[in-house]
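Hi R.,

Here's the chain you asked about this morning:
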Amino acid sequence: MPLFRRRRDDGSDDEPGDELVEGTAGDSGVAAPTAGRPAGPWDVDDVDDDEVQRLDLGALRVPVPDGCEVRVDIQDEQAVAATVVDGRSALQIHAFAAPRSEGIWDEVRQEIADALRSGGGSAEETDGPFGRELRARIPTAEPGQGQMPGQALQPARFIGVDGPRWFLRGLVTGAASTDPNQARTLEQVFSHVVVVRGGEAMAPRDLLALRLPREAMAHLAEQQGDEQQGAEETAKPTLEMLERGPEITETR
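And the predicted structure, written out as tokens:
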């Protein structure tokens, strides 16, 4: 999982493979909203003059406040989400295509609540800093108790914002899901995310394509090359193998 981090010490470089949109962040790493739309998250057309540094992931540009790190979630070799980690809390962000004429958060919120309740969890609608949200408890497997779901309920918050032809969903877990003070940094991150929808036609709810920064892609390619080389060297017969007689070695 590619990782990007900003350290709290002044003057420290972002690492590894960061690609930040130019600008200067304030002391907290997140600046005040710009004029245009009344509140973030922002469409790319609304932030031409803002001064927040963001990690450029293609369809998402994500702030990385001091002391936080961003993990890019990969599924089937495709970047699908960004997760911002702040101590014991995390915010996972997905961006979707949406219809031009109407938002989809009301419908998606109901579907999430129904799925949680039918799976043994709970969900309650409430007002939050981004409008209506879900305070949820998600069934999870308790460590050391096997893999059966429903043995423990993890608190979480689902937040969402409908933008121009896009929808942004956030999942807050950890301490920030129940403690407003712990949630402040991640809420600021979500409010300053920039969505780059693009002009191509897409079906509603299709994931917007994310990409890794160039440095991260090079780092992953190097890692994969090292792993492949290591597997090939492991598979080569050695003198010790030949002396012991025929053996079959499987490397995964």
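The domain at 3-212 is CATH 3.40.1000 (Protein Transport Mog1p; Chain A).

Let me know if you need anything else.
M.
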